[in-house]
Amino acid sequence: MARSYVQVTTTTDARSEAAELAKSAVAERLAACAQLVGPIASTYWWEGEIESAEEWIVVFKTTADRFDELASLITEGHSYDTPEIIATSVVAGSMDYLAWVAEQTEPADPDEDADSGTGA
User: How many CB atoms lie under 10 A from the CB of residue 39?
Assistant: First the structure.
């Protein structure tokens, strides 16, 4: 069965929170990488009112089978009551890049020494 890939996005109102979500996801191997974009201007409905805010986007690159765990990590680490968590299917991509995403999002082997000293 072919592996499926997704880009997952969320937004937050602080660059520091966006950076922490990115770092946590990569550290937990739930995303191969995460990119911060912003600030952006957002306009949206919230609690019956039109709101405007400055936000940061975080774009996570991962496999579809890691989505549920990534969504949980985002939800738990997010300051919003209802955070945006949207997964968009990757329909095509560089085979080398997608192989790298798959490799980097494999769950860590608990028996493997994380600091092997190889520098790789």
Answer: 15
Which CATH number goes with the domain that contains 24?
3.30.70.120
Q: Are 12 and 18 in contact (CB under 8 A)?
A: yes
What local confidence, expressed as pLDDT, does residue 117 receive?
46
pTM attached to this predicted model: 0.88
- Distance CA(72)–CA(82), nearest Å, equals 12
Burial, 34: exposed, middle or buried (Cβ in 10 Å; 0-12, 13-18, 19+)? buried
Q: Quick check: is 119 in a domain?
A: no
How many domains does the chain divide into? 1
